[in-house]
Structure formats: structure tokens, C-alpha cells
Amino acid sequence: xxxxxxxxxxxxxxxxxxxxxxxxxxxxxxxxxxxxxxxxxxxxxxxxxxxxxxxxxxxxxxxxxxxxxxxxx
Length: 73
Prior knowledge:
This protein is of the alpha+beta class. 45% of the residues lie in helices and 16% in strands. The chain is built from 4 helices and 2 strands. A two-stranded antiparallel sheet has the order 1-2. A hairpin with a 2-residue loop joins strand 1 (7-12) and strand 2. The longest helix is centred in the middle third of the chain and has 13 residues, at 38-50. The chain is globular, with a radius of gyration of 13 Å.
């Protein structure tokens, strides 16, 4: 996964915070964030934060990102 491109930082006052850009992830992996419910976007961001390639794999992240309302599996 191209984690370096997805991981961003923002500085607020004297504090620096790290976050994972869902928009950048969507660009790289051709994901339509507009159709994902808010709760699925939260799960997606959580998986991005915990990605390690072992317990949380790219396949897991893409499975959530490609969620469809009427999915049978």
C-alpha cells in the first residue's frame, strides 16, 4: 500500500497531528467515497491507521472500500 502518500500531517497551534487521507486513498485505488455510508468511511479510516500488512492487509482495506449496499458476500 502507498501509505506514505495517504498519511498526512496537520499542525494546529504547536501540536502536529497525523491522519490518513481518504481522498488520496480513493484517488490511488479508484474508490468512490461518495457512495460509502459515513460508518463505512470510519471503518476504512480505522483500517488505514492500523494497516501493517499482517493483521490488517490491503485486501481487507479494499474489501471495505468496495462495499456495496446490495452485496451478497
